[in-house]
Amino acid sequence: MLEQLFGGRLPKLVIFDLDGTLLDSVPDLASAIDSMLLDLGRPAAGIERVRDWVGNGSAVLVRRALAGSIEYASVDEQEAELAHQVFLQAYSGGHALTGVYPGVMAFLDALKTRGIAMAVATNKPERFVAPLLEEKGMLGYFDWLVGGDTLPVQKPDPAALHWIMQKAGVAVADTLFIGDSRNDVLAGQAAGVKVVAVSYGYNHGRPVSLENPDLLVDSLDVLI
Ligand SMILES: O=C(O)COP(=O)(O)O
Ligand SMILES: [Mg+2]
């Protein structure tokens, strides 16, 4: 399947989104958001609403939770800053509810066997990325990790993809980006790389097929 996308060749570099693509991280994110909300004397949001708010990094997730909506322009900045610190503390508490999606490990193994370089470009704060990948047994697969606060801008800006391709010394034409949300498709298209979207992740309640990825898959192992 990968060869078909690349005109009979294999990509030299595959970059992955993290939340909603490799890891089902919403249960722990929702638990930390609810603990933050309760701390601030507000009602819990619950996992279903948090799922629709994930994708633009933790600062935006916290603001959406305070607004109780995906639109958060009305949120007080000072309160949001404080709430973000509470959230980061709560989320540091553990990731036991975070699971690896079916098909992920088989796909990572297949790429490794073929000598294809791998990296992660996520909007999740950098401090959580390596520990989480380590805890889930997949840190060793990735040569480069970019978090939401690693560079001055985050996805949908293509900067993370450019940064990784430069470090890897791999051209746009030999790079694949795999993600679950509109931000990923936009970042990949802006960078000029092929984009595969997974149907099982988080895309603010919208089917990710509407974002026009090059290919949509229901699990990563179908790409092998
Ligand atoms: O933390 C988020 O908001 C989303 O992270 P992701 O970019 O890995 O999907
Ligand atoms: Mg994602």
From TrEMBL:
The reaction(s) catalysed by this protein are:
2-phosphoglycolate + H2O = glycolate + phosphate
Annotated family: Belongs to the HAD-like hydrolase superfamily. CbbY/CbbZ/Gph/YieH family.
Where on this chain does Mg(2+) bind? 17, 19, 180
Coiled-coil portions = none
Enzyme class (EC, first level)? hydrolase
The record's CDD domains line, in alphabetical order, gives: HAD_PGPase
The name this protein goes by in its record: Phosphoglycolate phosphatase
Q: Which InterPro entries does its entry note?
A: HAD-like_hydrolase_sf (IPR050155), HAD-like_sf (IPR036412), HAD-SF_hydro_IA (IPR006439), HAD_sf (IPR023214), PGP-like_dom2 (IPR023198), PGPase_prok (IPR037512)
| Membrane-spanning ranges | none
**Gene3D superfamilies in the record:** HAD superfamily/HAD-like, Putative phosphatase, domain 2
Its EC number is 3.1.3.18
List the pathway annotation.
Organic acid metabolism; glycolate biosynthesis; glycolate from 2-phosphoglycolate: step 1/1
Under the GO molecular function aspect, what terms does this record hold?
metal ion binding; phosphoglycolate phosphatase activity
Could you list this entry's UniProt keywords, alphabetically sorted. Answer: Carbohydrate metabolism, Hydrolase, Magnesium, Metal-binding
Gene Ontology cellular component terms for the protein in this record: cytosol
Give the protein's biological function.
Specifically catalyzes the dephosphorylation of 2-phosphoglycolate. Is involved in the dissimilation of the intracellular 2-phosphoglycolate formed during the DNA repair of 3'-phosphoglycolate ends, a major class of DNA lesions induced by oxidative stress.
Swiss-Prot/TrEMBL cofactor(s): Mg(2+)
A Gene Ontology biological process in which this protein takes part is: glycolate biosynthetic process
Task: Identify the domain of life.
Answer: Bacteria
Q: Does the keyword 4Fe-4S apply?
A: no
